[in-house]
Amino acid sequence: MANTVSQHQARTAHPGLKAWVDEIATLTQPDQVHWCDGSVEEQGLLVQTLIDAGTVEKLSETRRPGSLLARSDPADVARVEDRTFICAQREVDAGPNNHWRDPEEMRATLHALFEGSMRGRTMYVVPFSMGPLGSPISYIGVQLTDSAYVALSMRVMTRMGQPALDVLGADGDFVPCVHSVGAPLLDGAKDVPWPCNGENKYIVHYPETREIWSFGSGYGGNALLGKKCFALRIASVMARDEGWLAEHMLILKVTSPEGEARYIAGAFPSACGKTNLAMVVPTLPDWKVETIGDDIAWMKFGEDGQLYAVNPESGFFGVAPGTGARTNPNAVDMVSRDTVFTNCARTDDGDVWWEGMTGEPPAHAIDWRGQDWTPDSESPAAHPNARFTVQAARCPSMAPEWEDPAGVPISAIMLGGRRPNVIPLVHEATDWEHGTFMGSIMSSETTIAQAGEVGKLRFDPMAMLPFCGYHMGDYFAHWLTVAQREGARMPRIFYVNWFRRDDDGAFLWPGFGENSRVLAWIFRRITGEGEAVQTPIGLLPPVGEGGIETDGLDVSPETMAELLAVDTEGWLAQLPQFREHLERFGDKLPPELIAQLDALEERLRAG
Ligand code: GTP
Ligand code: SPV
Ligand code: MN
User: Fold this and answer.
1) Is the pLDDT score of 8 beyond 60?
2) Could you tell me what percent of the chain has a pLDDT over 70?
3) Confidence (pTM)
4) What is the pLDDT of residues 64-118, one digit of tens each?
5) At which of 355, 375, 394 does a domain end?
6) Counting ligands in written order, which one lies closest to the CA of residue 266?
7) Does 26 share its domain with 110?
8) CATH code of the domain in which 40 resides
9) Structural domain of residue 166, as residue ranges?
10) Does residue 87 sit in the same domain as residue 142?
């Protein structure tokens, strides 16, 4: 095996890239260096390496062809926001939304950690394109990693390998991303199935030099550095500097019964429904929804003044629990083969299982920790942040144009989060500035996608709180500024909430496929046919005629009225929190947002 690996040669004429790879190899001292070409042979090699190491096991070829199951270390199951740093030169540029460390001090800390950190391992050189290869909206990154699991995942999640090196050419720019699981194998020590460094995790970004260094974790956004680290934290800084938007948004295409199509983006925090909505199967007859992306949108202005979006990723790293035939049949089909599952349970017939996959749990399974599990067990079979990793091309609802290098024109942006009360099912901003304000006061209950307490309400502006690579006050200003551009035709902004609950904690709105009813109303608003009523908080669908289509919907008229009511008392009670939240951003808070808050208060008090 070692020989096969070392046979790979760098097929790049980029002196800067070669010098950097040499420099990092000298620092981290891997046994060998493997330049990833993205070939099928290489995929086979990575899979075999992972099987030999016990990191993954093959699932049944009849039940789940071409698929693998990985079990992570229980200390490495989600993003670690308290170990994520933005090391801008000046603390004020990182803002109160980020953990800041002095870049020089951080470089010294990391240098010590990375020194020799890849001993006994292979360093994979993973060139990748975020966005369609060669698109004017795309960028190149190169990740160095000592994890074969990460290299294999990057192959799914990005356009990885020789084609990315070809785009880079001899002198192109790339974002350097250095990753180590932080578990060197000294003197032939035996490896563990999921090497990581539970005590010493660092997810570090240098925004000015556009560099990423990640240490100690092999899981998801901590380790697949093209995703949150590059495509959001670093890209948000690039977008600010260059006049575009890098956002934590799904992108979908809606086609009406008349055959007209529109593209809509949606910013919901982690584990708040982006993947599900991006692949939704409408319950409304004759409406069609197709998928462009499920997590990240890069949007640049076209000559016509519209924002054109690409999905920078080429795969899905989706939440497994809750994914079932009723909630997301497209995803069920998509993961039926050629998928890497992480922290799901394994059934006795060599398949995977998770809570919400089927109505009936298996009588016995091996849980995500590798232990016997039965429906009587106290803990879930799959970790709540268990994920599937699969190529986007496997998704039956992909829109044919999902890889169009020109991107797709965005007509509307949805904002949303988990709010058990106050926030109605949907309301529309009166204009871009009002919509920016809505985004700035977004809040949501925390989920299992990040380490920490679950179900705690926190402000998460534009779903970017953990992902904005600079001061959020500057980020709000950037949203306001892009709309000032000559000839800009900004998307309309809508705030949705699928997560209202009754007094017993049950969801008031059935969600999933029924969300198509809200998409249809948004569509009609964009095309100018839809009705809305002006309220103190914005534009709402009329209850009944002309509003949300309720034919065939199993929700009582009373509940619909509750979902679409303006809870004036509830909003008034939140105003002091909104103010306190916005004031955190100090001098950098655009005055327009305080003016919006004052105006909202005035309208609410006027009734
Ligand atoms: P990240 O990948 O972490 O960014 O998450 P995401 O925003 O893509 O969330 P995803 O679609 O994976 O959904 C996360 C959880 O929310 C799953 O358990 C879903 O079952 C649940 N969910 C998604 N859509 C709805 C909905 O319309 N209603 C309800 N009640 N739950 C939903
Ligand atoms: C999220 O947490 O928003 C995710 C999962 O999409 S991760 O890739 O781990 O960031
Ligand atoms: Mn996400």
Assistant:
1) no
2) 98
3) 0.97
4) 999 999 999 999 999 999 999 999 999 999 999 999 999 999 999 999 999 999 9
5) 394
6) 1
7) yes
8) 3.40.449.10
9) 2-53+82-243
10) yes
pLDDT value, residue 9: 61
Q: Give the 3-state secondary structure of residue 273.
A: coil
- Write out pLDDT tens, residues 285-306: 999 999 999 999 999 999 999 9
Report residue 233 as tokens.
């934290």
Q: How many whole angstroms separate alpha carbon 594 and alpha carbon 588?
A: 12
73, part of any domain = no
| In a shared domain, residues 322 and 235 | no
321 and 304 inside one domain: no
CB 275 within 8 A of CB 328: yes
Is residue 25 helix, strand or coil? helix
CATH number of the domain encompassing residue 587: 3.90.228.20
* Per-residue confidence (pLDDT) for residue 574, from 0 to 100: 96
Q: What is the mean pLDDT of residues 300-327?
A: 98
Q: Are residues 370 and 415 in the same domain?
A: no
In a domain, 44, yes or no: yes
Q: Do β-strands 297-301 and 245-247 pair in parallel, antiparallel, or remain unpaired? A: antiparallel
Boundary (domain end) residue, out of 185, 213, 243: 243
Q: Which of 177, 272, 344, 468 is catalytic?
A: 272
Is 36 known to be catalytic?
no
| Number of compact structural domains in the chain | 3
Ligand 2 contact, 449 CB (< 6 A): yes
Secondary structure element (H or E) that encloses residue 306, with its range: none
Distance 180 CA to ligand 1 centre (A): 30
Q: Which atom of ligand 2 is nearest to the CA of 449?
A: 2
Alpha-carbon distance of 294 to 302, in angstroms, equals: 22
Q: Where are the beta strands (DSSP E) in 497-572?
A: 533-535, 538-540
pLDDT digits (tens, 9 = 90+) for 34-56: 999 999 999 999 999 999 999 99
